[in-house]
């Protein structure tokens, strides 16, 4: 479980301080999937960094599984906004990095890494280096790297932003299947309303400057959902339209 | 066509330069004492190949030993300085000041301090190629991209793991920039030391051939030096290709 209580974070800038997040209250239940949407610069990445223990809040408290966050933890995985792959390692080697760092048995890890790479459509690319992969492929390698430790808490920062619409749907479906099989407590940042509604139990809308929680919308649509079949459901259309309105009111349109 | 471009064109250039040189000495009747023609140099080499090769070997030994010491010491110093910012602040100005001393000027002093053996030569080589190795390695070690540092933190990597698995490999391409500059300077350092202290090596050959007005021999020594320097440089390049094949790919 993740709990944020009145969490604010400011950054020192040249003249004044930039308030990235202001008094965020948010709880994510055990095994819950929460999507976070909001326009560029409203503090979504900062939110994930705070939960991951990479940044300290300026004020407020954050707890993960009941304990306050003091720093990064092995059972919390963060998939960053950039793929952040090591250029000298192959796709497989990159996915295995967390296994090596945690000093877990490499053989088991390698089997799981291969399964994951195959699942995200990278069969046949296990031994390619990042510079031989497209941006979207690199992102999928980074996704596998985040999933390899079977984290208890999974934080994802726009994991599918570099993918085409169809691959994006496939990946969302994969992620949903993984989540149904083994629900990790998940915070998923995205720019896509459809994706948020497809995947999330609840959608959090952040408003910019400073980032605040503008609205939290529960998505009560039975799983498994799919863009193809569920898109026509009135409940889905309603959620999407509503989120669109909220975001539009926040002053700016979503980025595509 | 592409093979002609990569091999034929450089070859054509070299042959043309040789031809111009040779015909100039013939047409203007330049004496070989002043500017030897290519055959004079081949002949000078043919007169005493064993001697020239032995002296070349001595230059290589000095260069490689000095370069090796400079690389090991340079890498260790760069690692220490980047790990310890306070020390970096304190020592970097001293290093820069030391480096701005023209090393050539120190060569005679080194002989005074260390005698006429190989030692002062090796020390001059170390002095001359140490700094580029340190600076390039430090630049590499401090250029880890923010997202990779964040990655290693989020994986709870130990300081040692972050260093060995991320920071050090990331620094390798820049380190090799320093090594390539260093190896070229190392040859220069060795020759300067040998000219100053002509007890052996190709530098000594050049000094001695000047005394006996044997210009073709001096040219033979200079050409050997060029071959030697080029070979050492490309050995470092080969090592780079072997160790960081990915660097060329990501820098495009
Ligand atoms: N390390 C930092 N130093 C200074 N300011 C920062 C830092 N990180 C973030 N900010 C500021 O905080 C605000 C929120 O940034 P953040 O990266 O969290 O936005 P985001 O919602 O993830 O945007 P995007 O959708 O474009 O990724 C921005 O105004 C940014 O300038
Ligand atoms: Mg972001």
UniProtKB/TrEMBL annotation, chain A:
Molecular function terms from GO: ATP binding; ATP hydrolysis activity
Lineage, uppermost ranks: Bacteria, Bacillati, Actinomycetota, Actinomycetes, Micromonosporales
Protein name per UniProt: NitT/TauT family transport system ATP-binding protein
Key words, A-Z: ATP-binding, Nucleotide-binding, Transport
PROSITE patterns on file: ABC_TRANSPORTER_1, ABC_TRANSPORTER_2
Domain of life: Bacteria
Organism of origin: Actinoplanes campanulatus
Pfam families: ABC_tran (PF00005)
Residue ranges occupied by any ABC transporter domain in the UniProt entry: 2-233
InterPro entries: AAA+_ATPase, ABC_transporter-like_ATP-bd, ABC_transporter-like_CS, ABC_transporter_ATP-bind, P-loop_NTPase
From TrEMBL, chain B:
SUPFAM superfamilies assigned: MetI-like
Location of the ABC transmembrane type-1 domain: 56-236
Compartment annotation: Cell membrane
Keyword Acyltransferase: no
Gene3D superfamilies for this protein: MetI-like (1.10.3720.10)
Family the UniProt entry places it in: Belongs to the binding-protein-dependent transport system permease family.
Protein name as catalogued: NitT/TauT family transport system permease protein
């Amino acid at each position: 479980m993740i709990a944020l209580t009145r969490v604010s974070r400011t950054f020192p800038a040249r003249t004044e301080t930039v308030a990235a997040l202001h008094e965020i209250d948010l709880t994510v239940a055990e095994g819950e999937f929460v999507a976070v949407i909001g326009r560029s610069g409203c503090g979504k990445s900062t939110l994930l960094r705070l939960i991951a223990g990479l940044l300290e809040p300026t004020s407020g408290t954050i707890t993960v599984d009941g304990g306050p966050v003091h720093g990064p933890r092995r059972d919390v995985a963060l998939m960053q906004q950039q793929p952040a792959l090591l250029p000298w390692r192959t796709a497989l080697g990159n996915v295995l990095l967390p296994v090596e760092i945690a000093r877990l048995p490499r053989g088991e890890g390698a089997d799981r890494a291969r399964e994951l790479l195959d699942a995200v459509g990278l069969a046949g690319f296990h031994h390619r280096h990042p510079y031989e992969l497209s941006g979207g492929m690199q992102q999928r390698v980074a996704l596998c790297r985040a999933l390899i430790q079977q984290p208890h808490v999974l934080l994802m920062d726009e994991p599918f932003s570099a993918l085409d619409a169809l691959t994006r749907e496939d990946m969302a479906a994969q992620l949903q299947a993984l989540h149904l099989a083994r629900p990790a407590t998940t915070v998923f940042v995205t720019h896509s309303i459809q994706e948020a509604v497809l995947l999330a139990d609840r959608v959090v809308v952040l408003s910019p400057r400073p980032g605040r929680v503008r609205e939290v919308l529960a998505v009560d649509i039975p799983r498994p959902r799919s863009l193809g079949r569920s898109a026509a459901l009135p409940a889905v259309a309603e959620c999407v339209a509503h989120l669109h309105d909220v975001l539009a009111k926040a002053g700016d349109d979503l980025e595509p | 066509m592409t093979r002609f471009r990569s091999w034929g064109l450089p070859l054509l250039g070299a042959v043309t330069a040789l031809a111009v040189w040779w015909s100039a000495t013939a047409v203007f009747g330049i004496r070989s004492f002043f500017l030897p023609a290519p055959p004079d140099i081949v002949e000078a080499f043919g007169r005493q190949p064993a001697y020239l090769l032995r002296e070349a070997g001595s230059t290589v030994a000095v260069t490689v030993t000095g370069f090796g010491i400079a690389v090991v010491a340079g890498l260790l110093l760069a690692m220490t300085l980047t790990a310890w910012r306070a020390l970096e602040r304190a020592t970097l100005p001293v290093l820069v000041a030391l480096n701005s001393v023209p090393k050539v000027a120190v060569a005679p002093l080194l002989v005074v301090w260390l005698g006429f053996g190989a030692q002062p030569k090796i020390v001059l080589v170390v002095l001359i190629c140490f700094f580029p190795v340190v600076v390039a390695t430090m630049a590499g070690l401090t250029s880890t991209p923010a997202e990779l540092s964040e990655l290693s933190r989020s994986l709870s990597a130990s300081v040692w793991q972050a260093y060995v698995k991320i920071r050090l490999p990331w620094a390798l391409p820049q380190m090799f920039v320093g090594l390539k500059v260093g190896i070229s300077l190392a040859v220069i350092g060795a020759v300067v030391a040998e000219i100053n202290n002509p007890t052996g090596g190709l530098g000594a050959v050049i000094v001695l051939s000047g005394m006996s007005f044997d210009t073709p021999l001096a040219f033979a020594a200079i050409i050997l030096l060029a071959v030697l320097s080029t070979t050492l440089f490309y050995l470092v390049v080969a090592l780079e290709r072997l160790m960081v094949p990915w660097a060329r790919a990501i820098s495009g």
